[in-house]
Design brief:
This protein is 18% helix and 32% strand. By secondary structure, the chain is α+β, with helices and mostly antiparallel strands. 34% of the residues are buried.
Length: 200
Amino acid sequence: MDSAPVTAGRSLIRTAPYASLALWGGRVAHGLRFATAAVDVSLDAPTGPVAVPRPHPGVSPAHPVLGSMSPAEESPTKALASGSAVPRVLLLAPTLFAESLGEQDLVTRLNLCGSAPGCGRWVSVAFGGWVSSLSADAWPAAAVRFSERHPTADLLDLGAGWLLLQMEIAEAVVRTDRACVLLNTEEAGGLLVGAPGPLH
């Protein structure tokens, strides 16, 4: 059974219209629309993450407060999606920002926060991982998947005003007013299982 923070986090992910993407080095893009995606949405072989040292060894890059790890985070919850492939996240970003990423995968953090529907509990979810641009060959399949959550006409402007990014999830931190849980790669993928449909 899901822990309360994980349940609240999954509820927020289902309904949150936007997320913020924070890149290593300080650049942040707010208000990005997102959707989950199958691992094989990209037709390109992964380029691999950029090797960036962590300023505090042993502390997650997804952790919103470096150097502050609670007891709840030292004992990750039971795996949520044992044996399943970890999905990625698709992000629709303005071309100017997306092109600034360059060709390599970059260390990043995807942040969502708000009141979780159903329980009304404040919750924050921070996914840590690597972000990269999708090749043009992958756009059709990715756009169809993205439109299931965000049926937006901006998808018709791919390559001009907008580009699709993909984020490979490595871990996640879920915080509520009562708990803080650090999830490993498999558990973080469990938060994205059962991706939401269109938002209204």
